[in-house]
Amino acid sequence: xxxxxxxxxxxxxxxxxxxxxxxxxxxxxxxxxxxxxxxxxxxxxxxxxxxxxxxxxxxxxxxxxxxxxxxxxxxxxxxxxxxxxxxxxxxxxxxxxxxxxxxxxxxxxxxxxxxxxxxxxxxxxxxxxxxxxxxxxxxxxxxxxxxxxxxxxxxxxxxxxxxxxxxxxxxxxxxxxxxxxxxxxxxxxxxxxxxxxxxxxxxxxxxxxxxxxxxxxxxxxxxxxxxxxxxxxxxxxxxxxxxxxxxxxxxx
Length: 252
What we know:
Number of strands: 21
Order of helices and strands: EEEEHEEEEEEEEEEEEEEEEE
Shape: globular
Strand content: 35-45%
Low-confidence stretches: 1-51
Number of domains: 1
Mean pLDDT: 76
Distance between the termini: 34 Å
Largest sheet: 4 strands, antiparallel
Oligomer: single chain
Structural class: mainly beta
């Protein structure tokens, strides 16, 4: 589901795009018993206005979250991380636009941190999306869609992908990225009731500090444990958002 939201700034600019909307059920750690909750990722092409860099490094201390929720670093060596898709076995596939590189974040003993980050594809034509179905990874380039069958069993030696469709235009439209006033750079939460959004609120904010941005949120994916992954294509990182453990509990 794709939904356009209008930013609350007096400029009245359409600044936020919900890239993915998905429902959390009551058993999910970030769920709601009374309302279905949908998290919204920001498509960077609609909310990036080229402010000055905040400086090198990752500044998670700047991120503002609801009480009882925390953000931790999931992986920091995923250059230009954008779209993500997790597999049931614990691997998270990530695509980037940096020289057409794709990554696989191999799961460890839990979903808290990947055990290893490996390159799984190079030389793709600006890959712009990934999806996993029945063990096959589909990758969308500008002009075609590729499919890598049995991807997880062949990570060390990827076969030539199957071309699913190559009849798309070779040039893709791209929206504005260099507007004067920087806005966006955050994750928005939409509360949904009877299949309709009834309330919008900022869930995670702080990648933009005044006119300077140290990071840029792009995609969100819910993991089986109920936590949320957020990709950052400016800082080259992926974050994990979850509830804080009670005082005295085992630390990650």
